[in-house]
Write a structure and sequence with these properties.
By secondary structure, this protein is an alpha+beta fold. The protein is 47% helix and 17% strand.
Amino acid sequence: MPRDLRISQRERLILTAILEIYIATGEPVSSQAVACAFDHKDGLSSATIRNVMVALAEAGLLEQPHTSAGRIPTALAFRLYVENLMGQPRIGVSTNRLSDSLQQNGLSAERQGQIRGQIEDSYSGIHSTQQFLERTSHVLAELSSGVGVALSRAPEQEALEHIHFSRLSAGRVLAVVVTKPGAVLDRVLALDRDLTPAELEVAARFLNENFRGWTLDNIRADVERRLHEERNEYDRLLSSVEELCRKGALTDSVTPQTVFVEGVANLLSSELEREPLRQMLVALEAKQRLIELLNAYVDAHQQNVRVVVGLEDALPGLNNLVLVGAPARLGEASMGTVAVIAPTRMHYQETIHAVSFVSQLSEKLFETRRNG
């Protein structure tokens, strides 16, 4: 966004009106439509509005799809609109009264009850954060008429607390790994060579004494490095340890991030042309790229909703879509991310508040279960 972009109070007022009319109708907005919206109460004649619309177009905030048509907002105009809604004006003047009213209004008690009811109706059957996030994607899709997305938290590297090996039979060893969070991982290893109980005990002692608190990935890497660098009495020990590691003794148990996507069909009812729509659907089907998109724009430590207009920098094909996302938290820990992806012509205020409410609802529901 150009840092030197400045528009006057009057221009901002008219731009906000154009945006809201366009969001409501989906049609190019004429100066007459804007004049009717103000009903001459703000001293704005049709001629004044036409001149302002020309200036807004020259600033890159409006475009004219056809010669005789009205104007439609550009992606830059939507970004300014979102900044007003989020209370983050960047263009040198205070937010106007229309934007101020939008910032003050949250979800109605009726709407909050509806959202809570949709999630709680199935909550008795939810026993994990994964199930909760999956249900959340359904609810957000219904609320927004866009795409509801929920992403599980990024897996953390597990750190070693203690390891123990037991010989089961020739070439078969049971590895029991206790990690710092308290998880117990056990797996049977099929070795290429047999190790005696004494060798297994020495290998476990070596790992416990030298690598307690290390992540499992770093332990494997360092053992391999030592095996190649240290040509001394530890060769046999290190080769035994390396064999155990290579066969999976220190394999992380964490699962990759899971993304739940619902409501892609909602995009089919939008006014998007066929080719841009096809590109969006292809992009949304690329789950790994969608995970990268959410991780790039929504920080697990942020406190507020993040709104991003135009996602083409992160994922080509999504230039006409908006991301509204927030972290779902349990105390200080991240449960994951909840988000809506929808066309730029969306109901921003309600969607922002809905995503915020759902992200906070997760902690309330799980806290109720813990206390119940």
